[in-house]
Amino acid sequence: MSVLISGALVDGAGIPLSGCHIILKSRVNTSEVVMRTIADVVTGNNGEYSFEAQAGKYCVYLKQDWRDEYCVGDISVYHDAKPGTLNDFLTALSEDDLKPDVVRRFEEMVAQAQQSAEAAAESERLAGQHAADAQKIKENCQTLADNVQQNAEAVADNVQKAEKLASETAQNAAR
To answer: What range(s) does the Lambda-like tail fibre protein N-terminal domain occupy (predicted)?
Structure first.
């Protein structure tokens, strides 16, 4: 699969580089491109260029008129890359740009984020369990309060019965 690379090639003053050769030299073998093959595109009168680049890694050279070609950088073209200008591809980060310590720190951050997510999930689970426990305790307290109320009523009833019996006993003893 190819990716469209198009735009206008201009110098630092914004002047179009017409008739300039944009040369792509393949750096690696891919399913579409053989290493060390060369693609050569020439810019139009206003520096415009447009070509379909196959997925791969390339050294990019410019050559104008009789001057020697010179390297302007490396590009990586991926199957899922979006169309863009040559500068877009030249300034894009590739895995070669990432130093091992950057990759290591990134992997540590990913691991830390994973641990944080797991801790958050555990906290959420525990919070749910605590809420369920609190609801159960509330229900138990209500049951106990109901039982205490029933017992208080039974005690009051028994007190009345005892007072009545005591009164009757006192009356019977007086006779």
So the answer is: 1-134
